[in-house]
Structures are given as C-alpha cells and as structure tokens.
Amino acid sequence: MPLKQSSEIHIIGGGLAGCEAAWQSGLRGIPVILHEMRPVRQTEAHISDRLAELVCSNSFRSDDANANAVGLLHEEMRRLGSLVLAAADANKVPAGSALAVDREGFSRSIEKALAGLPNVTVQREEITDLPPSDWDNVIIATGPLTSAPLAEAIAGLTGTESLAFFDALAPIIYLDSIDFSKAWWQSRYDKAGPGGDGKDYINCPLNEDQYARFVDGLRSGEKTEFKEWERNTPYFEGCLPIEVMAERGPQTLRFGPMKPVGLTNPHAPEKPYAVVQLRQDNALGTLFNMVGFQTKLKHAEQIRVFRQIPGLEQAQFARLGGIHRNTFINSPRLLDSELRLRAEPRLRFAGQITGVEGYVESAAMGLLAGRFASATHPLPAPPPTTALGALLRHLTGGATADLFQPMNVNFGLFPPVEMTHVGNRKGRAPARKASYCARALSDLDSWIATIGGQTIPPTAAGFAAGRPV
Fold first, then answer.
1. Cα(255)–Cα(257) distance, integer angstroms
2. Of 460, 411, 434, nearest in space to 70 by CA
3. In contact, 391 and 361? CB cutoff 8 Å
4. What is the DSSP secondary-structure string of 113-130?
5. Edge-to-edge strands of the sheet including 184-185?
6. Which one, out of 6, 60, 130, 383, has a CA that is 20 to 30 A from the CA of 307?
7. Contact at 8 Å (CB) between 246 and 328?
C-alpha cells in the first residue's frame, strides 16, 4: 500500500547524518527543510557554522572494501549515491589505506551540493522542544552535541534518561614545525591507500626511557576538570583520551596508538620502542593530526608533554586537543526497523544520536533515514548481511537494550559467513573478511534492484567540476 507522503521533511541537525538525509530526500523530489542551530547557537566543539563540519579526526578510516567492515560500508554508500562519500572522495588527502579528507574542502562540497537542490532549504535556528505536531515527517540528526532543551524533551517523550559519554579531540600540528632529522615518512608495512604512496604518515620514535618519561608526563599532567553532572559519564572505548589509556598500564599505549610495528626508522638501526604517528589533515599538506591522541589534558600541559616526543620538540599547534560530550538514545528499546520512534512514529532518528560511532556510520544512518522518510512505498531494510543492514539491525533490536553502548561497524555485527576450507590458520581471517565483503556487495546489489534501483550517484569528478548533481 502506498504511504501517505507528507508535504515536506524536516531534518534537525546539519552534520553528516542530517546532510546525507537531506540529500537522499531532496533528490527524490520531496521538499526538505534542514534546521541547523549554528551560528545562532554554537557548540563546545565546532569552530564554524559550516554544514558537515568535522570536529574530531579528518579520517573516515579504512577504505578497503575487500577486507575491512568500514571500507565495505564506504563502498555500499557509494553504490547508493552517498553525498558524504562523494564529497570525501573529492577532497581526499594521503593517509595510507585510510580515506582522509581536507576538512574545509569537504564541508564546502557538502554545502554546495545541497545548495544545488532547489527543494532543500537550510534554516539557521535552534529547535528547543519536540517538533510541532504538524511536522509529520521529521528526522532528528542532532548528533553528539544535541542541545540540552531538545535532549530533555526527547528524554521526556521516551521515558528514559539520556545516556552520554565524552569524545576527545586530537591536536593538530603545523608540518613545518616538525624535526625530520628525527621523524620520517612511512605507512605501516609501506601500505599505500587512496591518493597515497606508502609514505603517508609522519613517524616520531621513542626509545624505552623516552617512552617511560612520556607516559609519566601523561599521568601527572593537569587534566580538565569536569562539571559535577559530567563526572560519571563513561568514555567510548574506541575513542579513549591518551592519558586514560596510560592510566590502564605502562604498556597500554605500545599496544594501541603508539605501537611500533611495520615501521623502520631510517635515522637509527635499532627498532623504535614506541612510535607516535601524524596524519595529513588538509589538502595543502600543511597540517597533521596526532593519530589516536585524543586528550583532556589542559592546553599548557599538552604543549609541555607532547613536546617531549622526539621530532616535536618545537611543534607548533594549529589546534590543541579538547573534549566534548556525546549524547545518544537507547535505540534498541526506542526505534523500529525504519529508525522511527515507536512512541511517536512521525519522528525518525539518524546519526550518532542513535548510538553508532564514527563519521561514516553516522552518515550511513542518515542515508537510510532519508530513504525511508522519502519513500512513497514501504521500503525494505537492507539485508543484515550488508554493512548498512548489520548496523541497522544492531540499532533496532540486534543489541541488548540493557547493555547498549555506541558501536562502530564491524564484522561481529554480520551473520556468520559460510567458509570453504582454507589451508592454514594464517589464511583464514583474510579469507573470512573477503567472504563477508563479497557476500555483502552481492546482497546489496540485489537489494538495490528490489527497491527499483533508486540510486542517483554523485561523483567525485562532478564535485571537482562544480556539478555534483
């Protein structure tokens, strides 16, 4: 039976999820009003009023669609005409096997594409309460920094307390302040990624004594004091501040962001005891962020401690690390299979507020929410064997509501894949990942055919030419 189509779709939040939802709905001829509160009201983490501003890393993580779950999600979104992936492809910078972007160029591309859709209107205003009752098709994509009045209204409607944790920002360093008599260029195992050559990261080595002093500095450094109501808020395990990791044990960092594997220091014959990596942050290649170095150290302490790292003794910081709150709902308890609030189905949720973690995962939920909201006939969910379907299923019933925490896409969310015999243990994991990916893309193509091939893909070339649509 055809669905009753509302006269317009209201999308609250101009981040990656909201912009992707606006793109998917707008392309299908539905009038869209995108409500973004900046610059009327700023957040603790944003520095501009641009749509789709990247406030943490500039990396969309692995772009390997044959062996990595997030790389697979990239490819699925490309096949479904994702605005976010097209903008990322058009603004990528070298980052090994990862897809990283020039953050300013990326945001400009998103804004330009949406401005090219005449039925999409951007309204700069803060929504401080539940949407009016005559808004009968709404997507709430307010992200990790949902304004307090709206978060309280959502909590009041759902009858649950808001859940929250902290995300931390990594520092960004000017390239010309790095000492390359100590640092060197190399990707782990010399692996090249999109636009890269196998030498996409800057590496700063530490010997055992330097590493011990550095860990001591992290532990003793003065930290940001939280407000009383923030102190019991848990961190997301995939985005722990560097000093929190250091508190877990003296070797924790050497098996995390400072692992020295796959790297050879051309300045010294001995293997580094630990390594700090920096990744390109803008298209000009003048800014590099410290990979995995999210922090809640006070700014003066960051400068003191991070300048202990060989090669960064004279580092100049374009941005120091920071910390911000992240709010999400208990999606398995609250949302149906189309991301609608069970208590009030005119309201859909998308992005990080649903409990996905990561830029790509957030945009993916915006893509699905936009498709569901603009459909004129019931739209089946993507198969759970796909990255999109696995994430959706996790949010809308696959996860245990009582234990629900934010999640990145990973193969553990997928139904098991049948494997033919692989000769030895070493070859099983790569073969299994490849099987997951091959099955997912095959099933996705079948699903796209089932829903009528509703794919209108923007292209990176189109963005470069100023014609994304």
1. 7
2. 411
3. yes
4. HHHT-TTEEEEE----SS
5. 184-185, 201-206, 274-280, 287-290, 172-174, 317-319
6. 60
7. no
C-alpha closest to that of 220 among 246, 239, 259 = 246
Spatial separation of the C-alpha atoms in residues 384 and 380, rounded to whole Å? 11
Residue whose C-alpha is closest to residue 144's, from 221, 62, 55, 210: 55
Sheet holding 59-62, edge to edge: 59-62, 98-101, 92-93
Specify the amino acid at residue 243: E
Q: Which amino acid is at 390?
A: A
User: Could you tell me how many residues make up the chain?
Assistant: 469
Q: Is 191:267 a contact under the CB 8 Å cutoff? A: no
Closest CA to 146 of 20, 275, 326, 342: 326
> What H or E segment, with its residue span, contains residue 442?
helix 425-450
Instruction: Supply φ then ψ for residue 161, to 5 degrees.
Output: -80, 145
* Interacting residues of 346 by C-beta distance below 8 A, sequence separation 6+: 131, 135, 136, 137, 138, 340
d(CA 234, CA 88): 31
Helix (H, G, I), strand (E, B) or coil at 416: coil
Handedness of CA 312, 317, 323, 329 (dihedral sign): negative
- Per DSSP, helices labelled H in 91-229 are 103-115, 148-158, 208-220
pTM of the model: 0.79
- The pLDDT averaged over each successive group of 10 residues in the chain (469 residues) is 66 96 95 89 69 90 95 97 96 94 95 96 93 96 83 83 67 94 94 78 97 96 72 70 92 95 94 96 86 91 97 93 80 95 96 93 98 92 97 91 84 85 65 95 95 58 51
Looking up tokens 């709206």, which residue turns up? 150
User: Which residue in this structure is represented by tokens 């976010």?
Assistant: 84
